[in-house]
Write a structure and sequence with these properties.
- By secondary structure, this protein is α/β, with parallel strands linked by helices.
- The chain folds into 2 domains: 277 residues, no CATH class; 175 residues, no CATH class.
- Helices cover 25% and strands 16% of the residues.
- The protein contains 15 helices and 15 strands.
- Strands 2-4-5-7-6-8-9-10-11 form a 9-stranded mixed beta sheet, with helices on both faces. A two-stranded antiparallel sheet has the order 1-3.
- Helix 14 runs antiparallel to helix 15.
- The protein is globular, with a radius of gyration of 22 Å.
Amino acid sequence: MKIRALFIVPILVVGLVSCSSDDSASDSSVATGDSVVSTEAPVSEAPTTTVFAPTPVAISGVGETTVEGPVTGGGGQVIFGTATFDGSGFGYTEEEYFISGTANSYTSAQPLTEDGMWTVEPKDTAEYKTRILVRRPTTAADFSGTVYVEWLNVTAGLDTGPTWSLSWVEMLRQGSVWVGVSTQRVGVEGGGNKMGEFRVLKIADPERYGTLNHPGDNYSYDIFSQAGATVWNQAATILGGLEPTTVIGMGESQSAFRMTSYLNAVAPTHDVYSGYLVHSRGMRGANLYCATNCADPGDPSDVKGPGVALIRTDLQRPVLNFSAETDVVGTNLGYRKAEQPDTDFFRGWEVTGTAHGDAYSLGIGDSDTGSGNGDQGLFDAQFGAPSSVYMGIIECGLPINAGPHTYVLRSAIHSLDQWVRTGTPPASMPKLDNKADLTGFNLDAQGNALGGIRTPFVDVPLAALSGIGQEGGSFCGLFGTTRSFTADELAALYPTADDFIAKWNAATDAAVESGAILAVDAEHIKAAGATYATR
């Protein structure tokens, strides 16, 4: 479908940032390691010919839900993140529903292990009623059949959808549906980061959301399963009659920690989702069960997530793990400690020159129409990225990252969708070349990291783009940096504008060939690069 109009209006930055903790509170106690991984793409055997079942063979052990909606009333507006959505220019509509049911919490007789091969059992049950948000095509003929179900992030103290914010262009181009699930208590009841408390559902509009009831994050795993099952089983209601053929679960950052534990604990038996995107996780797994808050020494019934958690290797559904530079090294996220090899069911993508949050997700994307203006804005940001976000609400010490996160994420969700549909996994990608102590990356002569997924942003650079090294408080540590090259540096690299444009276009074509970016995005990236001649 053709993307034709602007629909995202920024109100406050908290809706576009996320955190590295497994729950709504920050934790930076992750230790660094001393391992080095190969930056070369692993050699794969012949790709699997398995065609994954387009609908679950069985959704086992998942409770039924009652659906209410579309929801109206109260202040008359959906409360979500800090942005409003007007999909009319895209042939899309937004509707809100309440789902309710009885959810299980889970426990384990043994401590949760690093290999992710967990055996869990139901512990207790609780009644719940939460919110799901649906953005879908209004015309059935425009629907691709794919539904992306996002575990909403609550780090900022409210429900946000970071994966939507960074990849909505591709979702709408596909004609897919996006469903955001208020999976955790903070977004519904409050009690998290004070920054976002004014957008907590029951606080922001008690008349509209006053009947909601979230019993706590112990029940979040089962709530996410039940939300996915509702997409399959009650599509006539919540999708306006659209019939899904593929339902993909996803979560970013704090929600990706939860997704990791979801995959290890309940996904093998529930088998709700056709595939999974784990977006910008760290090395840990989220807590499975906390009597209160899993604080040391804690309650003996607590089941804490392990300090390092791989995703279990016996899953029979595709999993794509997507990492920015910020996610791989350092003492906060440190995914390298949990990095695992590709298989017929797992792919790990690490993207050079990218940050957890960046100039696109923190401003440029808000005015992107999918017609090339956002691409031009991101290209231009390499010459002068901002250091403050949204009128100075957050001030960082250095210009924030202006890298290609959005482009490679769009390719990732496209590749995952095709993997589910055809059974052929995307190509294995090279890993970032990290330092042995996991404090950073080995760099090329221009200051960009070696290895990883390559794009013209790092192979024909206009700046040194990094996911680390930012200064300042609040969320700045997640925003990476941009060091724009001087005129003399640019002249040394590219003697003429034509020289730059030829190299930029060739690198863009190479990125398409490798699967790093999509051909449709390459057209806009090249068009933006052509403006170098006017500088």
